[in-house]
Amino acid sequence: MALLEQAFDEHQLELFIGLRNPGSFIPKLLMSLPEGERAEIVRNTDLSCLSWIGMIEDIQDLAPSVQITLWSNEDTPFVWGDIIRALTGLDDSTTLVDEYDLLATLLDEAGQNKVLALSNQIEPQDKSVLHEQLAQIFEEHALPEKIEEELDLPGWSTEIVDAFSELYEQDLERLGAVPGVRVLKP
Fold it and tell me: What are phi and psi of 173, to 5 degrees?
């Protein structure tokens, strides 16, 4: 990042990162490694102290003028339009065609129809109300096979995932208060 910042010193650089809950990211990453390497990492690493904050702080230390936009990967179906608007520099009020198609892929047919009806309304809605309605549709119509993830790491429990989830939410809140960092939320 520091090299990019130097190379483009006449321009404002922006970095866009979808962060993932370490409670699900770590087991997926570790299970992709050979068993011996995985066992060594688990034995020699304190996984409980892993956080995205350190990475963002390091980026800001090395390239302080880079603007950073973050979002929770788990929220991507709800903030997809916001991500596209942020990446392209479009105004927040710009309407996007098929903005909630990604969300619809996670729903049964009735949920898809409700999302389509919401997105086709003539009058634009208050964004927070729209997100509440989308969340309700998701809760009622999400397809379990599309949203549930098997974590097959030996010793990885629901309690560990819950603890990481809580820390992850706290990290996202803290990062949202850091100057030069924008966190997209539903």
Answer: -65, -45
